[in-house]
Amino acid sequence: xxxxxxxxxxxxxxxxxxxxxxxxxxxxxxxxxxxxxxxxxxxxxxxxxxxxxxxxxxxxxxxxxxxxxxxxxxxxxxxxxxxxxxxxxxxxxxxxxxxxxxxxxxxxxxxxxxxxxxxxxxxxxxxxxxxxxxxxxxxxxxxxxxxxxxxxxxxxxxxxxxxxxxxxxxxxxxxxxxxxxxxxxxxxxxxxxxxxxxxxxxx
Length: 203
Fold this sequence. Notes:
There is one protein chain. It is built from 7 helices and 5 strands, in the order ααααβαβαβββα. The protein is an alpha+beta fold. It folds into 2 domains: 6-68; 73-202, 2-Layer Sandwich (Beta Polymerase, domain 2), CATH 3.30.460.10. The longest helix is centred in the first third of the chain and has 22 residues, at 6-27. It is globular, with a radius of gyration of 18 Å.
């Protein structure tokens, strides 16, 4: 197995982060792990020690968007945030919170809107969408609750205009503690409807 020492390993890790970021930006990949593996394949390395962290890839993604999408990225994020607001207003009885790249400002044109909603009965959300004739599907998502604990959480996918919304349904006490971010391992940042409106007014 090839070993990379010192600066060479750091340079390769940076190269892989930049390539993973490019793949995410240009091909609509939203899975850090998948983008990382594709970047490693391109450069022919699978040495775990030189693979970038998700946080390093996110930094590279922000740099890519600043350098190569300066004229369009702001409009892309604003449009997705406006779509998120529409979805949150539809589901306001479920205390919706915006999470993920649309909130963080790293979304690409292919990014889905990610929401957390809260109800003791996940089917209540599907009933609401059925009552408003919104096509949807019920799926499951794996979320990280603690460093050593994962759980499957019900989620509902539906469309607003041409954008897919992925709404994870947590019990009401899930408002107290957000699951951990795949990027930095910290509790996910969540935004209320009012906080999203403030973001939009500032753009």
